[in-house]
Structures are given as structure tokens and as C-alpha cells.
Amino acid sequence: PERALEAMWDQEPKTLEELNAIIAKAGPLVPGATQAVFGEGPKRAEIVFVGEQPGDQEDLQGRPFVGPAGKLLTKAMAEVGIDRSKAYLTNAVKHFKFDQRGHRRIHAKPTTGEVKHYRPWLMKELELVRPRLVVALGATALLALTGKSTPISRSRGIAQFGPYRGYITVHPSYLLRLPDEATKREAYEAFLNDLRRIHDLAE
Ligand code: URA
Known about the structure:
The strands form 2 sheets. The chain has a 5-stranded mixed beta sheet with strand order 2-1-5-7-6, sandwiched between helices. The chain is built from 9 helices and 7 strands. One of its GO terms (biological process) is DNA repair.
């Protein structure tokens, strides 16, 4: 499989800037995205957080995790003492995909094929950042990091993603979608507990 990943480069990127230029040039698999949304954070961050794909706000602003789910993640990180500006935040898929409903753009989940298309870029990103810990936020990130579809409920916690120490937790958008306040609060507390462990593991 490593060979197959190598074959895609005409010129192997040696920096995140070179990698991002390749992603920008490739453009979206599905037309519609405003721009590619690259990973953001220090070049040598200790923790990499991997999400699914940019949402509406991320697509417009060109930055990962700036919409509602991103704001919740940023708040949760701050609550456990993880400085967002010291972490590296990225996505399995680098372009927003959506269904148009009137003037609204509704997030559409990436297919397995789309996740696979972007996977070598994510792997290269990890190789360039060389973090101590890689965090999968939700099932799409987990699929991208392992190549396998596994429910979060059965895999949550400490993991290993190839050479990287890993941690699996829910995606913050899952917390936003929960129906009632009590369930939401409980799920948010569990998410904070995961982030505390993540903070400790990256020490
Ligand atoms: N959800 C994601 O998975 N990534 C983002 O950047 C924003 C929302």
C-alpha cells in the first residue's frame, strides 16, 4: 500500500506549503467548493486533530474548524487546557461538499471513495508534522486514518494509526446534533474527558 501512495506524486512534497499547493491545484473532486481548506497550526505541532471535511463557514473563510462545530471544539479544548494555536487542525477531505437547498448549502457526507482520494495527502501531512498524537474526530477521520470503517462507539479511546500514537473520539458536530439538553451535556462531558486524556498523552 505504501507503494501505491508513492505513485501519485510527480514531485514529492517536502513541506506543508508544497503539499498544499498540490491539493489546491488538484481542485475539488465534486464541483462547488469555494477553495481548498488546508490544515492549520504549527508545522511541528504535538497534537494533530483530524476532522471530516470543511463545512460552509470553513469553505467561505478558507480555515478549518471555524463554524459551529469548530467553535464547540475550540471551547472544549480551552476548557481542558489545550491551546488551539499550538495544535494542528486538519480534515480527512479538504473541500466542502454540499446539497443546495434554496439559498442554504447543507453539508453532504463524503463517500468512502472521496476519503480514499484525499488519504495520501493526509498521510503526507502527518509525515511532515510528525506529531506525538493523532486524534480522529469521528468515523470519517477514523476511516481516513485506518482505511477501515469502524463505529466510534466500539473504538473510542487510545489507538495506533500506523506509526502514530492515536486517540479516537466523536466529532464535535455529533454533540450539536443530539436532541435534548441532558444528553447533550452528558456527551459533552465525555468529550471533555477524552480531551483531558489527549492532553495528557501528548505531554
Ligand atoms: N467539521 C469538520 O470536520 N471540519 C471542519 O473543518 C469543520 C467542521
